[in-house]
């Protein structure tokens, strides 16, 4: 009997603790912060030292594939003694301090939700710098994943209801209502929105499943594919005696990375597009997705035209849209 009572006591205690934890999460304030911003909590002297240099080296490195260098995060440094109040509700926080411990870990929803707080401690500068370099890739991925999910949640407040993607490819994306379908062909959809100094664009098409069979020519084949699509569907200004259309920038090859989009293996391609006969260019992001169930490669791409304007956040919005793709829409209706 006593044993049974003890077991019941611990069961109730565990339930109460779980309720406390859930209650804390439920009552946390909504996290705040502009897209791609990082709050770095660190002592002023450490920030000015080699420790701060290591943070800047990793977290303000240039985003690949933009027309000019833009840091992947806009960093705000705050000393620990003023890290309080609304500042603690920032979405992405990196907390760096000298301590008696040497630890590095990521915490979720400490002061607000959704939130990621990367904690780096070291007994000296060397340990801190080592922890910064060892964890930066993982931490950056965590921060970016959080930002992507927050952006996708914002999109759902007002979504585009047009069915071009569903009808042509049996897919859907969470596309904000400010975007409009501009062109539909048998195997091509172009969706765009106007911005202050240009436009943001999403295109989708498919390729045969056996495309890109040779690794040795993979990048060249991607360029050939993009240039062919540009020639068919993305014309530029009329140039007397010349065909002007979108191509992949000739001077530099695009960056190609392995990726996963909505649970499917994919290739991520980042680079610069330009017009074949006119001085006009901008960044693009392409995902070539292995859609084996439908025996095809699904290609979705975002690109921006915005001369003399920073484009990091535009491209990030397009990335969040592209990564919201879902398949087999007909089975969900």
**Helix proportion of residues, in percent?**
25-40%
**How many strands appear in the DSSP assignment?**
15
In this structure, how is the largest beta sheet organized? 8 strands, antiparallel
- Our Rg estimate from Cα atoms comes to 24 Å
Task: Write down the secondary-structure element order.
Answer: HEHHEEEEHHEEEEHEEEEEHE
Low-confidence stretches: 5-23
Mean pLDDT: 91
Strand content: 25-35%
Report, as a whole number of angstroms, the end-to-end distance: 55 Å
SS summary, helix count:
7
**Helix-strand category:** alpha+beta
| Global morphology | elongated
Topology:
Elements: H1 2-26, E1 37-41, H2 44-48, H3 50-59, E2 74-78, E3 92-98, E4 103-108, E5 116-122, H4 125-155, H5 164-169, E6 171-172, E7 180-185, E8 188-195, E9 198-208, H6 218-233, E10 246-248, E11 255-261, E12 264-275, E13 278-291, E14 296-305, H7 312-322, E15 326-327
Helix pairs in contact: 3-4, 4-7
Question: Care to describe what's here?
Answer:
The chain has 333 residues and is of the alpha+beta class. Helix content is 31%, strand content 32%. Strands 7, 8, 9, 10, 11, 12, 13 and 14 form an eight-stranded antiparallel sheet that branches. A hairpin with a 2-residue loop joins strand 11 and strand 12 (264-275). The model is unreliable at 5-23 (pLDDT under 50).
What can be said about this structure in brief?
The protein is α+β, with helices and mostly antiparallel strands and 333 residues long. The chain is built from seven helices and 15 strands.
For the structure shown, list the relevant keywords.
single chain, 333 residues, alpha+beta, eight-stranded antiparallel beta sheet, five-stranded mixed beta sheet, 15 strands
């Amino acid at each position: 009997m006593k044993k049974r009572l003890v077991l019941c006591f611990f069961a109730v205690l565990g339930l109460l603790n779980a309720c406390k934890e859930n209650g804390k999460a439920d009552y946390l304030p909504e996290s705040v912060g502009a897209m791609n911003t990082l709050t770095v909590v660190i002592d002023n002297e450490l920030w000015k030292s080699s420790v701060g240099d290591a943070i800047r080296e990793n977290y303000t490195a240039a985003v690949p594939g933009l027309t000019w260098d833009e840091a992947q995060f806009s960093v705000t440094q705050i000393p620990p003694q003023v890290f309080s109040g609304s500042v603690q509700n920032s979405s992405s926080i990196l907390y760096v301090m000298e301590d008696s411990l040497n630890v590095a870990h990521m915490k979720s929803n400490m002061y607000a939700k959704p939130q990621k707080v990367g904690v780096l401690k070291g007994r000296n500068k060397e340990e801190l710098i080592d922890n910064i370099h060892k964890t930066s890739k993982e931490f950056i991925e965590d921060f970016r994943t959080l930002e992507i999910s927050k952006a996708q949640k914002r999109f759902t407040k007002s979504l585009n209801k047009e069915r071009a993607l569903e009808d042509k490819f049996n897919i859907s994306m969470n596309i904000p209502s400010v975007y409009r379908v501009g062109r539909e062909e048998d195997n091509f959809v172009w969706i765009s929105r106007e911005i202050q100094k240009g436009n943001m664009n999403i295109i989708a098409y498919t390729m045969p499943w056996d495309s890109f069979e040779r690794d040795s020519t993979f990048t060249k084949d991607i360029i050939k594919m993009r240039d062919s699509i540009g020639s068919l569907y993305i014309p530029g200004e009329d140039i007397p005696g010349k065909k002007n259309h979108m191509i992949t920038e000739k001077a530099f090859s695009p960056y190609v990375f392995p990726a996963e989009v909505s649970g499917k293996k994919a290739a991520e391609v980042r680079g610069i597009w330009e017009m074949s006969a006119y001085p006009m260019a901008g960044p693009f992001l392409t995902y070539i997705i292995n859609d084996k169930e439908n025996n095809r490669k699904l290609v979705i791409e975002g690109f921006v035209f915005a001369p003399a304007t920073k484009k990091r956040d535009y491209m990030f919005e397009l990335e969040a849209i592209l990564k919201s793709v879902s398949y087999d829409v007909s089975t969900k209706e």
